[in-house]
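User: My advisor asked me to double-check a structure prediction for alkaline phosphatase before group meeting. I don't want to rely on an old file, so could you generate it fresh from this sequence?
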Amino acid sequence: MNVFLVVLAGMLVKVLATDDPYHDVQPGLKTTASPKDNETFVEGISPKENTTKYWHDLNEAVLQEKLARKPNKGLAKNLILFLGDGMSLATLTAARIYLGQLKKEAGENSFLSFEKFPYTGLAKTYCADSQVADSACSATAYLTGVKGNIYTVGVTSSVGLRDWENMKNESY
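Assistant: Sure, here is a fresh prediction for alkaline phosphatase from the sequence you gave:
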C-alpha cells in the first residue's frame, strides 16, 4: 500500500510540474519568476495589479469621474442606437480580453471603444417563444417594442412561423 501511495504521489508531482498548454492562464505569454518572494508573473500583467492600493486608487478614480459627470437633463435632439447583434456580455468579455492580449497585456482591464460612451444601456433579448433570440425577433422587438416569435420579423407573437395568412393581417 505504501509503495502505491509513493508511486501515486510521484505521478502527481510529475503531472503538476509539466507544462500544460490546455490549461494555461494566458496562452502565448511566458511566465517569469519575480525577483522577490519567488512569485511568478505572466508577461503583460503589471506587477502593480498585485497591490491593494492599485485597485483602491483605480476604483476611486472611476468613482470620482462618474460623480463629476453632470447629468444631462436636456431633451435629446437625436438618438443613436448602437446595436451589436450576437454580442452577449460573455462575447464582449472575450473581445476585451483578446484586445488586451493583442497589446501584450492580460486583457481583462482593456476597454472596447463603446464601453467608454457616457450613457449606455443594456437590453435583454429573447423571443416570445424561445429563450435564445435570433436577429429577426430581436429586430422586431427593438423596432416595434413588441416581442415576436423566433424566425419571424415584423409581426407580433400572434403570428407563428410559416403562418402566411396571419402575416398579411396588418393588426399583427
